[in-house]
From TrEMBL:
Family annotation (Gene3D superfamilies): Helix-hairpin-Helix base-excision DNA repair enzymes (C-terminal), Hypothetical protein, domain 2, Nucleoside Triphosphate Pyrophosphohydrolase
Chain's role: Adenine glycosylase active on G-A mispairs. MutY also corrects error-prone DNA synthesis past GO lesions which are due to the oxidatively damaged form of guanine: 7,8-dihydro-8-oxoguanine (8-oxo-dGTP).
Name used for this protein in its record: Adenine DNA glycosylase
Ranges in a coiled coil: none
Keyword DNA repair found: yes
Catalytic function, reaction form: Hydrolyzes free adenine bases from 7,8-dihydro-8-oxoguanine:adenine mismatched double-stranded DNA, leaving an apurinic site
GO molecular function, one term: adenine/guanine mispair binding
Species of the source: Hallella bergensis DSM 17361
Residue ranges occupied by any HhH-GPD domain in the UniProt entry: 2-145
Entry's EC annotation: 3.2.2.31
Keywords from the UniProt entry: 4Fe-4S, DNA damage, DNA repair, Glycosidase, Hydrolase, Iron, Iron-sulfur, Metal-binding
Length: 293
């Protein structure tokens, strides 16, 4: 909530967000994770300003950067009363249990099946098509508070007499989801290089974690250099968990009188200015550990 308040106070209108730099947006977002969402919000704001208005159909809303089927349906139904179901995890869970559907929710067949069923319920239900926002809100809230992952409140559920999963004793088995993502472990080493009140940093590039964020000198799957200066181990085997990755990091402090050779994308800044740059949470941890050295 504090992040939300700060974000809205800084960018009260879409024009304010569009006018900001990516660095400013990422710095304000720092600590929340999922930085692609901040970048997408920023790009979408610029799209909206260029259009001159907020898009008001599901198809046009989906053209905004970072907006997929679910988000487009949610916005279209809540903001513009379009009769489109917002099929999220809660919706999958309710429908799979009530109707006893074991088709994997993340399979191509499953996505089509649940979308079609939700559309049928919305359009055929009494008054649902006229109040799509209420239908979507009810489905979301019911899955979040009643038909929860574990343990669902089946005894007092208004659907317990028609719920196929309850009748078959399969509540804990549904919904079914294919395991498609394997968690990978990455090992990196950070060198916080301090030279006459300055520190070397660079911005992470596209196509990897923490795109656009800043960090000290980093090595991954590389031979570590032998630099002149005082080298201090700040911390080792620091575990940092992301959605699909586990990062194991070692932190070093190098205090040197001579600047070591670094790739061209590194810059030297006054150490006191580092706090104005947007950094990943792991770098925040490094800085916190440095204060104890």
């Amino acid at each position: 909530m504090d992040y939300w308040k700060r974000f809205m106070a800084t960018y009260p209108t879409v024009d304010d967000l569009a006018a900001a730099s990516e660095d400013e947006v990422l710095k304000l977002w720092q600590g929340l994770g999922y930085y692609s969402r901040a970048r997408n919000l920023h790009k979408a704001a610029r799209q909206i300003v260029a259009m001159g208005k907020f898009p008001d159909t599901p198809a046009d809303i989906k053209k905004l950067k970072g907006v997929g089927d679910y988000t487009a349906a949610a916005i279209a139904s809540f903001a513009f009363s379009f009769p489109v179901p917002a099929v999220d995890g809660n919706c999958h869970r309710v429908l799979s249990r009530v109707y006893g559907i074991d088709t994997p929710i993340n399979s191509t067949q499953g996505k089509k099946l649940f979308q079609a069923l939700a559309e049928q319920l919305m359009t055929e239900g009494r008054g649902n098509a006229d109040r799509p926002e209420d239908f979507n809100a009810a489905m979301m809230d019911f899955g979040a508070t009643q038909c929860t992952p574990k343990p669902p409140a089946c005894i007092v559920c208004p659907f317990n007499e028609q719920c196929e999963a309850l009748r078959q004793g399969r509540v804990d088995e549904l919904p079914v989801k294919l395991k498609t993502t394997r968690v990978k472990t990455r090992r990196i080493v950070y060198f916080y290089i301090r030279h006459q009140g300055q520190v070397a940093i660079h911005r992470r590039g596209e196509g990897d974690i923490w795109q656009g964020l800043w960090e000290p000198v980093v090595f991954e799957n590389q031979k570590l250099p032998a630099w002149d200066g005082k080298l201090t181990m700040v911390a080792n085997q620091v575990k940092h968990v992301l959605t699909h990755r586990v990062i194991m990091a070692d932190f070093y402090l190098l205090e040197t009188d001579t600047k070591p050779p670094l790739p061209k994308d590194y810059i030297w800044i006054d150490e006191g200015e580092f706090e104005t740059y947007a950094v990943p949470r792991l770098v925040e941890i490094l800085i916190e550990r440095l204060s104890r050295v």
